[in-house]
Structures are given as structure tokens and as C-alpha cells.
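From the shared-data thread, chain only:
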Amino acid sequence: MSTLGYFKPGGNNEDQDKYGEPMVWIGIYVAGASLICILAMAADLLHGFRNKKLWFPCKYFSLNAASITVITIAMKLPVDLSSEMPSYMDQAAKLGSLAFMCTMMANFMPSLAAMDNKALLQNVIGLSILVITMIVNIHIDIYTGVIKHIHSNISRVNSSVFDFVMIAYVYTAIMLLLLVITIASSLTIPTSKEILEVKYQTTNRTILTDKQLQHTQASKVEKLRQHVRKYWVMAETGSPQFVMAINPLSTASGVICVIVLGLKLSVLEIQFREPRVYKSVYKWSILFIVITHFIGVLMGTIAPIFRCFSVLSFKLVTKWNMTYLMVFKVEKHWTQKLCEWKQSRMHFLSSDRLRTLVCCLKGIIISLCVELQKVIVIYCKVISLIPTVISIGVAYSLNNRLVTALVVSETDNIEVDLSNYVLHNHDDMDLAEKTLRRITNSMNYFILSAEKEQSKELLELLE
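Structure, as C-alpha cells:
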């Protein structure tokens, strides 16, 4: 009986070299896809710095079908079950991809708020499938021995802390935690948008009333400037991405990014001190993957770290009280969507007995999800206290006179009534004065830029 030709791993070396030759170019392809993600994150950083938005909205690197496709290509090594990774460099490259994935997940989290409900559901499901597939494949690699208990040959770092199996478990646990945080965040986005819309309408009516009662002594230009400031603050703070970027879940993801970066640097410290031996089918392309993923981890950690500290102010630091320690309080909007699903009726079942059974099962499952949501929120609130505690230590290490001067200078440059036009999900939250000042400065920057530019259309009309 004739059989089709196939490659046998135990064949001669010439066949193995011929089979592995395309894998080098696949490795370069993986590095290229990773570079695309890095450039998109760099573009978001540049956009945030230029527009003085240090919470860095996701304009170029966001979660969508295209980005998931590119990320899937960049994550070729973790999902590859057929290729052996025998050398230290190969193992480090495979696990370095997981660090890059963790960083990307934290980086594009605010982009979830820019989607409608249908796109949000589709993209979160797509991301979940990718992350779960990577986690399962990594555990299969551990079971089959592809990821091994390899230690460094350097005596001073020859410790179990660099055990690749242990590092793989840590990375997969962080990825799973970030996925749960992403899902928990997506459940609050529809409710947050509804709350912001209601508060915007209420605040808008307040502005219209103030406009009618405004004193006539001020010039028309100054009146216009004041109203533009108010609407600018409303637009900036009412942005779903801004609200998403400053919530505890996003802050916790930023802290997790720092942990991932520290672990990556620890492995990288000895990665290039070991002999650069490439024994996998990807050969020397492994080096390009390692370099691009390390640059990606560095680049992708900047925005989450800035989001952790962009909402802190000296007012929060100097007037610390017990209300900031109420981390075990879970506001209603975190679980409101789940509660609505629990109370919704199921009309598509004809049998009363079956409907009762399904409703009871649905109630139990959603109740467990509500409790899990509360646990995740409390856990992220605890983690988000870390940047606040760091800011407290920095503030108290400074001279009290300097701190007071900074507080006064910030307060003097911000009109007091502008704080009334800040939109939040819940009334207990106060926006940092430093952040409010940065928002008004960004408005002044755009006004000055518009004054310097001449409108061609207006000049043509005048001519």
C-alpha cells in the first residue's frame, strides 16, 4: 500500500535542516508582528505627550479584530507545541513572549471603554480565547518537557528562582489575573457610560443656567473662555477611556506591569551572559524575537505606570484620611450589570419546569459571578493603594513648606468652580487638582495653537 510522503522527526539531518529552514523566516515574521504592536504603543505614548494626556488614551493600539490577529502572530512561540526549545535562549524567548502579552493586556485596557456593547463582547471573547489557549499550551509544554527545569551555569545566579517552569507558572497566573480584570472591567463599562450620560445632562443644564445668571461685567471673550473651560473639563473627565484609565482595575494592571517588568529584567540579566546557543528550529531568529519583546515590555509599561500616578495629587497626599482605606466598599456600578442579568426573565423556554430549572441555575451562576466581581474589585483596590502609599512617602520626605507651596500654586491656577464640572461614576471620588490643572492646560495649549494658525478658508473668504 502506498503512503503519502511525510517528514519524520527522527530522519536524517539534511531533511531536518530543510524542514526547519522556513521556521527562521517565521521567527522574523513573529518579530515583525511584535514590532507593529510596539510602534502602535509608541504612537499612543507620543499622542498622549503631545496632547498633555498623561493617562494615555488608546488611539492606535486598541483591542479589535486586527490587533488580536497581529498579537496572535506575535505570540507564535507560546502556542507552538511541536517545536523543542532546548537551549537557555530558546526557553527565555518562549517565556519572554508571555511577559510581552501581559504588558499588552494592561496597555490596551482603556480601549475597552471606546467600544459599543456588541464590539466589546466580541473583542473580549476573542482575547479570552487567545489567552486561554496560550495558558493551556504552556501547561502542555511543561507537562511534555518542552519547558524544562534549566538553571543558569553562572554560580552567583544559579538558583531555583530562575527555574523556567516556575517562571512559566508565574506568567500564566498573571495572564489569567489580567484576563479576569479585563472581563470585570468590561462588565462595568455599559453602566459607567449610562451614569456619565446622566451626569453630563445634569451638569449641562447647570452650565446653561449659570450662563443666564452670569454677571455682565466680564467681557464676551472671557465669558466664552469660561464656558469653554467648563465644557472642556466635562468632555475630558466624561470620556469613557479616562474613567477606565483611572479606576482601580486599571491601576492594579499598572502595578502588575511593574512586577512583569521586574521579572523580565531578572531573567534578562543572565540571558545574555549565557552562551548564545540556538538549538530550536527558529535558530538565530530567536534573538530578534527576544529583543523586540524586551523593547515591547519596556515600551508597554510606560503608559500603565503613568496611569497609576496621573490621578494623584498633593491634596490626596496631605489630607490622607480613613476614607481612602475603605477598600472593602464595592460601589453599586461594579455589579449593576450582573444584577440586571440576574433579574431578567427568560421567555424563550416553553416548559415551566425547564424555565424554573434554568432560572435557578442562572441565578446561582450569576450570584457567584457577582461575588467574584466584588473580590476582584477589592483586590484591585488594595493593589491600587501601592502608588498612593509611594506618593505619601515621597510627599512626607519633602519639606513641608515646599509641599504647601505646590498645593497653593496648583489651587491658585485652577478655578474652584471647575471641580463642579468633573464627571465621575460615584460621588465619593474627587479628581486630583494636578489632573484638573493638566486638563485646563491642555485646553490653553490648543487655544494658543489655534491662534497661531491662520485659517486658509477664512482668508479665501475675505479675499
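The two ends are 88 Å apart (CA to CA).
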